[in-house]
Specification:
Shape: elongated
Helix content: 55-70%
Mean pLDDT: 84
Structural class: alpha/beta
Number of domains: 1
Strand order of the largest sheet: 3-4-2-5-1-6-7-8
CATH topology: Rossmann fold
Number of helices: 11
Strand content: 5-15%
Low-confidence stretches: none
């Protein structure tokens, strides 16, 4: 666990994944690793758990621990602004306003949230991986996370097809214009649409390699010892692994009353960690430190 760079924790809403993410990040920071804790959950509880107003910019929590709560709504709006700016470069002024109206409609389309968050993850990793030893992501609840993490591979394939279609269109235009003496390679390199598509493809490829690299990245599922959370955790593991993302860690938070053998049977070949139930909600550095020690001790 200490050898990894990126950590993603997901789970059904209400199982305590923010508590676990924060405890892990705090433990890393107190072992001397400069650590960034990132909340991607729209229902932010990071400030509550840390007992510190985190906010939308990276803030220092303790000597080696930094945190940020991503404003998903703002990120979606910023993402659409960037798309509009790119459209201005490549779309005819005659239809530009109509295209912008269609982009506005996309704000409410399925997948818009996940696509905006993917952009955030790429931005955080590309801008901060050299500045931090560890980056811990407290993700949105399981359903969002499943859609989110299946996107890079789908988008990669989709962009391949779009790039191919664009190249075919450029080739047809070039060979149809007898006066145009440019080489096809020059046409490709000068085309702003291809440039944008290829840049996006490179971004998604970079992100996919990070997410799928088991040497760098660890995915953990947080659950509770109850029937519904366990079933959701089992489904999440299956669907993530069907997408090519291996889940190594299962954290049973608020554990009480069940046999360890019973919960381990639900997740064969996974590292199962048990965090005992507390008498009161664990908030603040002191309580998170206790959970972090309990968690890391079992992982070693």
């Amino acid at each position: 666990m200490l050898s990894k760079k990126f950590f993603f924790f997901s789970g059904k809403g209400g199982v305590g994944k923010t508590t676990i993410s924060s405890s892990v990040a705090l433990s890393f920071s107190e072992k001397g690793f400069k650590t960034l804790l990132v909340s991607l959950d729209p229902a932010h509880s990071l400030s509550f758990v840390l007992e510190k107003d985190v906010g939308g910019k990276i803030n220092q929590v303790s000597s080696n621990l930094f945190a940020v709560e991503i404003d998903v709504e703002k990120e979606m709006k910023d993402y659409l602004k960037r798309v509009k700016k790119e459209a201005e470069k490549i779309v005819s002024p005659v239809i530009l306003e109509e295209v912008k109206a269609q982009i506005d409609l996309a704000f409410y389309s399925p997948g818009a949230f996940e696509l905006a968050i993917l952009d955030v993850i790429y931005k955080i990793i590309s801008e901060n991986e050299m500045s931090y030893d560890k980056i811990v992501f407290d993700t949105a609840p399981s359903g969002y996370t499943l859609r989110l993490l299946s996107l890079p591979l789908l988008l990669d394939k989709w962009l391949d097809q779009i790039i191919k279609l664009r190249q075919e269109a450029l080739k047809y235009e070039l060979y149809s214009d007898l006066k145009d003496k440019r080489k096809l390679t020059d046409v490709y390199s000068e085309d702003p649409v291809l440039s944008i598509l290829k840049r996006r493809k490179t971004q998604f490829e970079t992100l996919r390699k990070k997410l799928f690299n088991l040497k760098e990245t660890l995915f953990g599922i947080v659950t509770n010892p109850a029937v519904l959370p366990i079933k959701i955790a089992e489904r999440t593991v299956k669907e993530l692994e069907a997408s090519g993302i291996e889940v190594k860690l299962i954290v049973f938070n608020r554990f009480r009353g069940k046999s360890l053998d019973e919960v381990e049977k639900a997740f064969p070949k996974k590292k199962v960690i048990i965090i005992s139930e507390r008498e009161k909600e664990p908030v603040g550095i002191k309580e998170l430190r206790k959970i972090g020690k309990e968690l890391l001790f079992q992982f070693m």
